[in-house]
Amino acid sequence: MAAARIAAQHGADTLVLDEQPGPGGQIYRAIETPANRQRPELGKSYAQGFDLAQGLRESGARYVAQASVWQVSADRQVGYCVEGAAHLVSGRQIILAGGAQERPMPVPGWTLPGVMTAGAAQIMLKDSGLSIRDAVFVGTGPLLYLIVHQYLSAGIPVKAVIDLTPAGNYIRAIPHLPGALHAASRLFDGWRWQRQIARCRDTEYVRGVSDIRICGDTDVTAIEYLKGGKWGRIDCQNILLHQGVVPNLNMPVAAGCDTVWNDGQACWNIAVDDWFRSSVAGIYVAGDGAGIGGSIAAENQGAIAAIGALERLGRINPQTRERLVQPFRKTLRREMAARPFLETLFRPPENTRIPQDDSTIVCRCEEITAGDIRELVRMGHTRPNQIKSYSRCGMGPCQGRFCGLTLTEMLADLTKTPVAEVGYYRLRAPVKPLSLAELAGLDQTGEGPE
Amino acid sequence: MTSAPPSTAMMADAIVIGGGLHGCSTALHLARRGLSVRVLEKDHVGRHASGVNAGGVRRLGRDLAEVPLSVASAQMWHDIENLVDDDCGFVASSQIKLAASMDDLEQLGARAGQVRALGFEHEEIIDRQTLLDLLPAVSPDCVGGMIVRGDGSANPYRTVQAFRRKGENLGVVFHQESGVQKITRKGGIWQVQTGAGTFQAQNLVNCAGAWGGRVAAMLGDSAPVQARAPMLMITARMAPFIDCVVGAHGRPLSFKQFANGTVLIGGGYEGRAEADTNLTHLDYAGLAASAATATRFFPIMKTARVVRSWAGIEGFMPDNIPVIGPGRAAGVFHGFGFSAHGFQLGPIGGKILSDLVIDGQTDLPIDAFSIDRFRGP
Question: What is the ipTM of this complex?
Answer without folding.
Answer: 0.86
